TrEMBL record:
<dbReference type="InterPro" id="IPR017927">
    <property type="entry name" value="FAD-bd_FR_type"/>
</dbReference>
<keyword id="KW-0001">2Fe-2S</keyword>
<dbReference type="InterPro" id="IPR006058">
    <property type="entry name" value="2Fe2S_fd_BS"/>
</dbReference>
<keyword id="KW-0411">Iron-sulfur</keyword>
<dbReference type="InterPro" id="IPR001433">
    <property type="entry name" value="OxRdtase_FAD/NAD-bd"/>
</dbReference>
<dbReference type="InterPro" id="IPR050415">
    <property type="entry name" value="MRET"/>
</dbReference>
<dbReference type="InterPro" id="IPR012675">
    <property type="entry name" value="Beta-grasp_dom_sf"/>
</dbReference>
<dbReference type="InterPro" id="IPR008333">
    <property type="entry name" value="Cbr1-like_FAD-bd_dom"/>
</dbReference>
<dbReference type="InterPro" id="IPR039261">
    <property type="entry name" value="FNR_nucleotide-bd"/>
</dbReference>
<keyword id="KW-0408">Iron</keyword>
<dbReference type="InterPro" id="IPR017938">
    <property type="entry name" value="Riboflavin_synthase-like_b-brl"/>
</dbReference>
<dbReference type="InterPro" id="IPR036010">
    <property type="entry name" value="2Fe-2S_ferredoxin-like_sf"/>
</dbReference>
<dbReference type="InterPro" id="IPR001041">
    <property type="entry name" value="2Fe-2S_ferredoxin-type"/>
</dbReference>
<feature type="domain" description="2Fe-2S ferredoxin-type">
    <location>
        <begin position="7"/>
        <end position="97"/>
    </location>
</feature>
<dbReference type="Pfam" id="PF00175">
    <property type="entry name" value="NAD_binding_1"/>
</dbReference>
<keyword id="KW-0479">Metal-binding</keyword>
<protein>
    <submittedName>
        <fullName>2Fe-2S iron-sulfur cluster-binding protein</fullName>
    </submittedName>
</protein>
Amino acid sequence: MTHRTEHTVSVDGSDVRFACSEGDTLLRAALRAGVGLSYECNSGSCGSCRYELLEGEVRDRRPDAPGLTARDRRKHRRLACQSEPLTSCTVRLGAKAESAPHRPLRQTATLREIRPLTHDMSEFVFVTGRPAAFSPGQYAMLLLPEGQVERAYSMSNVGNCYGEWRFVVKRAPGGEATSILFDKLEVGARVVLDGPYGHAYLRRDNPHAVCVGGGSGVGAMISVLLGAAALPDADSRTVHLFLGGRSPADLFRPAALELAQSRLGALHFHTAVSGTSPDGAEALGTGGSPYRGFLHEAVLDVLGDTLTDFTFYAAGPPAMTDALARTLVLEKGLTADQLHFDRFC
Ligand code: FES
């Protein structure tokens, strides 16, 4: 058995210390140790994991990461999700965050099934030897064998003791990771699955939820829907599920709707298309044509004055989640604790 070198990371101004294995990032090591840190994307894009290195040496996985501004670089700030400690370190962290309910674990996963959903979306089903422990709405990092490419994908099921991890993935034009998933990976292939991560998971306090998903973010919203339907008080809960795409061909009716419908007090399924193609609405079974326009506009139009009654979950392209967050907070006055988004760029 090989042992990886471990370095100790000490947090300035506190007695918090945690071990970081060689090759692991400062962010992931902190979360594995149960230390709550601010973060979202885990891939260098959003900037929410900024910190200062006071002592020690780290390797930067992505020196040109867009999550750091020129000002950050002048002030010698770094990204915890991109820093691999090479020695023991002392760090000054940015905002602390609540600890997530599950500590991330790095393990091997085997591809068991691929289920096509649309012309460019499929559900990939992986299995691990241990239970799949995560909260509805969280994501995992998949390290794909060819080219050692790593990407974040949200789970589209709920935690389970069978070790089953489902991911709805939309093919990205020219995308390295999705071309491996769609074109090269075969049933039986093994990947490294590291997770769960993410703060945009289902909260129980408000029985009224809105789930807004586009692209590969659709899976996270299906997971939140299934999570709400599995709660003991599901029959007193209301969920609005909004899915969006450029045309009706980009949309599908999630199989989870039937199960959720039978358990929730009320479930409303809405679709929106931002392009101009007219066909395909009937196949979704929404009882009407998809909304014509952007997803955040559909949310505003459908919910109207009742918007503030809900807790919002969203996942998808940054333009969609940013537009929704801007509208809800700046125009409609929702508070930060009513919104749960993880930004992926
Ligand atoms: Fe590190 Fe997004 S840049 S979590």
